[in-house]
Amino acid sequence: MPQFDVSKDPKFKNALANLTPELLAMPESEVKRRTRLDPTAAYYVAWAAAERLEGYRHALVALCGPHAGPLVDELPIVAFAARQADVEALRLERSDDLTALYEPVHAAHRMLLTDCESLVNRGLLSAQSLTNARSTQGYQATIDSVQVLVSLVRAEWTRIEGRTQITMDDLSRAETAAMALAYELSQRASGGPAPLAAELRVRALSKLVATYEEVRRMTLYLRHYEEDADTITPSLYAGRGTRKTAGDDEDEDVIPPPPPTPTPVNGDNPFST
Length: 273
Known about the structure:
This protein is mostly helical. The chain has helices spanning 10-13, 15-25, 39-53, 57-64, 68-92, 99-121, 139-155, 157-160, 168-190, 193-222, 229-232.
């Protein structure tokens, strides 16, 4: 049975929100930007380990000191926060492909320009009025051209009403489509919510790795003679799945060295500060 009830315990529901100030305050030296760990895979490994570690909490505290207890308690919360950060970043992640937003704008431009050219041919609009409404070379140019056409038709509506296939609903739809594309472009240019969510994902995963590796070192010390520490807290990097992201270095494989084999140091606690 699961040890943790995420549906009822508010510390899980609000894990990422509560951890965000700490994550944003992390010094850059603690942010692991090239772990190449799949956040989902890391979450499942850490979550399962956190459940197993509940049975070893008292032994870890007795052997490694009082700070071991809070670390064990923190691990599932940090893991859940990393999961929340990953889900939120994926939700807001923007694709480079703007086809879905661009196509209705381009279609609206084609429809409006065709009808306006017909109005020019019939002497109802001046040819000069379409000078700045023809370009579709790029997203912004298409947006501008659509907005010029919408403005032109509205300004001349009393003269052309009933003589054009264009309706006020057509103008509203064209304007809405153009504004949606323009908004997306502005968000990308200003670094909207997606970059912040992506940064929180990196920092939450870094926090998870740091917390998990510390708990794992203590478990390796505790279970040295039983030789089952890797079953209780398996390495996050063993057989890991990777999620390729921009900036990854194919030749870089940042895997921390295995913890040294613990040896007695005059009976002192090697994890004490």
